[in-house]
Design brief:
Layout lengths: L1 H14 L4 H13 L6 H10 L3 H24 L13 H26 L7 H20 L7 E5 H7 L9 E4 L9 E5 H23 L5 E7 L2 E9 L5 E2 H4 L14 H12 L2 E7 L2 E9 L4
Parallel strand pairs: 2-4
Antiparallel strand pairs: 1-3, 4-5, 5-8, 6-7, 7-8
């Protein structure tokens, strides 16, 4: 067990190496031992890898690992009976990752062949955003799974979750703080899902109201807390969260009103404050939580 942990640590470090040769050694080992590295680690490696051949090998290892996990669960069913079509949230989460993460890898491989300097392109940024949303969805489904908490730069997180890779949003501190950003400790994928839904709602509502996207993002601190505020115009005068939270309720044409439900679930999972309200034709989403300290 101890030897396996040491090997895995070496492999994970090698996958982060700037040297393609070092990464190739790690990928070769993973190809021979796909069960020794977690699915989430493989997905992150696929996201970062820029060499098509290495990404393909990682993608095959991920599929082999997940296929074996599914087979093991089936063979361990009591009395040899087949598993039911839906055996639990963990299974659904595994199926989501199993079906969608390889597809993202295929998109990345195709784009890499067709786009010059794919690694530095807006398409690569968009594909990374898609993979993060899949990771967040998996984490949200697996309610009992451990959160992947890390220290993250708040402003970078706000930028990286913006859905349009061709332009950056307006992000400003509410008052001069003497610091360009702060660190928060959170699960990047889950927090990103909350922000992505808030952004998309704001973009859709403002475009419907004014004919063009009009979203402002501000952040600030109050004691040991931080807050993020997203504002946009909308068609109407006033509303509160309870008015629009029910699935199927939406002020935007063609939408199902699911985004706010996802946002409240993520906020609850991460222990964040979430306030959504509309006043005088302006919608305001406020997210708050504890800031990190050195």
């Amino acid at each position: 067990m101890e030897r396996s942990a040491v090997l895995e640590s070496w492999v994970i470090e090698a996958l982060d190496s700037p040297s393609p040769t070092e990464r190739s050694k790690a990928v070769t080992w993973i190809s021979q031992n796909p069960q020794e590295v977690s699915s989430s680690q493989l997905v992150r490696a696929i996201q970062r890898e820029t060499v098509p051949q290495l990404r393909s090998a990682l993608d095959r290892a991920l599929r082999e690992r997940q296929s074996k996990s599914t087979s093991d669960r089936s063979s361990s069913a009591e009395g040899g009976e087949a598993l039911e079509s839906v055996t639990g949230l963990d299974d659904v989460a595994s199926w989501v990752r199993h079906e969608l993460s390889p597809a993202v890898g295929w998109i990345r491989l195709a784009a890499d062949q067709e786009i010059k300097d794919f690694a530095g392109s807006a398409t690569n940024v968009a594909v990374r955003k898609l993979q993060r949303r899949i990771d967040g969805l998996v984490a949200l489904i697996k309610e009992t799974s451990a959160l992947s908490l890390r220290e993250l730069d708040l402003v970078e997180l706000l930028k990286n979750s913006w859905p349009n890779p061709l332009e950056l949003p307006r992000i400003e501190p509410a008052v001069p703080l003497g610091e360009v950003s702060i660190d928060i400790r959170t699960d990047e994928s889950l927090f990103g899902i909350l922000l992505s839904n808030a952004y998309q709602n704001a973009l859709d509502a403002s475009t419907e109201a004014t004919g063009a996207p009009d979203v402002a993002i501000a952040w600030g601190t109050a004691g040991d807390q931080y807050w993020v505020r997203i504002t946009n115009p909308f068609l109407g005068q006033a509303f509160k969260l309870s008015d629009v939270l029910k699935p199927g309720v939406s002020s935007k044409a063609g939408h199902l009103g699911q985004g706010l439900g996802v946002m409240t679930s993520v906020a609850s999972r991460l222990g964040l404050g979430l306030r959504v309200e509309g006043l005088s034709g302006t919608a305001v989403v406020t997210v708050s939580g504890a800031r990190s300290h050195d």
